[in-house]
Design a protein that fits this description.
Layout (H helix, E strand, L loop, with lengths): L13 H5 L2 H17 L4 H11 L4 H16 L4 H25 L2 H13 L1
Helix pairs in contact: 2-4
Length: 117
């Protein structure tokens, strides 16, 4: 991740004067800490920062702040993605266990029976 790159090359404005590198760094550190707590893969972290890298500084900060809020409230899109993946893995395990308990012919017959009735 390119810390500090957000402020480089951006035109100065009145709003920009109130935003300093410490603000950006603090938000980035907070989001990185939360990602470590929730064990978000580095690949997704990098992709997130890259997707924001071309935004104006005020928009960038708003996105970081919103993602931090979402992480605290467990409403982050990354958290939701991980929850879906975990659920899928649970279903796959359950299907494998089910398959071990029954012969394939029995499974097929039971599925046909449920569908036809």
């Amino acid at each position: 991740m390119r810390k500090g790159s957000v402020l480089q090359g951006k035109p100065r404005s009145k709003v920009h004067n109130f935003i300093n590198q410490e603000t950006v760094s603090a938000l980035q550190e907070e989001i990185e800490y939360l990602w470590s707590v929730y064990r978000i893969e580095p690949y997704y972290q990098k992709a997130y920062f890259e997707s924001l890298s071309r935004l104006h500084i005020t928009t960038y900060i708003q996105f970081l702040a919103k993602e931090i809020e979402n992480l605290y409230n467990e409403k982050s899109s990354l958290q939701q993605l991980y929850a879906v993946i975990r659920k899928r893995e649970e279903h796959i395990r359950a299907l494998k266990e089910f398959d071990i308990l029954l012969e394939p012919e029995e499974v097929t017959e039971q599925v046909k029976e449920k569908v036809l009735n």
